[in-house]
Amino acid sequence: MKEEIDRQNEIKEEMIHNISHDLKTPIALIQTYAQSIKDDIYPYGDKDSSVDVILENTDRLEKKVKSLLYLKSIRLHKWTNWR
Questions:
Q1: What is the pTM of this model?
Q2: pLDDT at 45 over 80
Q3: Closest alpha carbon to 26 in 68, 55, 66, 6
Q4: Full 3-state SS string of the chain
Q5: Does residue 67 have a pLDDT over 70?
Q6: Residue 64 burial (10 A CB sphere; 0-12, 13-18, 19+)
Q7: What is the mean pLDDT of residues 34-63?
Q8: Furthest CA-CA distance within the chain
Q9: Contact at 8 Å (CB) between 23 and 67?
Q10: Looking at the predicted structure, is the pLDDT value of residue 20 above 80?
């Protein structure tokens, strides 16, 4: 039983680490590109391309959050049925 709990905790910690990384990357890109637009600097050559990077990364974040909420709902459903 203790081994199973330890294994689940390891999986949970790894998942948290991965999720954290997956969220930080698009946030950093959004911040960088928003600041560059504010400063009239366009890394991709024009404003529209820079805005596209921001929009693509907000879409990535939205999908990740929806996936997390879906996983939580599955876990909650399993836990509720287990009780």
A1: 0.71
A2: yes
A3: 55
A4: CHHHHHHHHHHHHHHHHHHHHHHHHHHHHHHHHHHHHHCCCCCCCCHHHHHHHHHHHHHHHHHHHHHHHHHHHHHHHHHHHHC
A5: yes
A6: middle
A7: 92
A8: 59
A9: no
A10: yes
